[in-house]
User: Which sequence fits this backbone?
């Protein structure tokens, strides 16, 4: 069997996974066996019927991001609220 390439390089960056990598994976769980059994029959949430938000990628400076994250959980919602306030202040009548 040929030896597989490491998943990360010397800098810790993860390389793109190949079909062979995915085929060699095994399903694992960090949950205790008793909890796995308890959760086995639990229904999972399905896809959202009417998505209200769009997934995007945005680059923010580290200090801005650190400031929002310092407020604890909900930092992404606080960023959205700040953007909405800014938009409301700068919106021009048509």
Assistant:
């Amino acid at each position: 069997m040929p030896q597989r390439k490491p998943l990360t390089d010397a800098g810790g960056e993860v390389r793109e996974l190949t079909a062979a990598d995915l085929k060699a994976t095994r399903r694992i769980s960090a949950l205790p066996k008793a909890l796995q059994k308890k959760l086995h029959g639990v229904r999972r949430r399905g896809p959202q019927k009417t998505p209200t938000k769009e997934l995007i990628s945005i680059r923010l400076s580290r200090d801005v991001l650190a400031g929002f994250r310092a407020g604890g959980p909900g930092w992404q919602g606080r960023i959205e609220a700040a953007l909405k306030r800014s938009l409301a202040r700068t919106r021009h009548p048509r």
User: Anything to note?
Assistant: Residues 75-90 form the longest helix (16 residues). The radius of gyration is 22 Å.
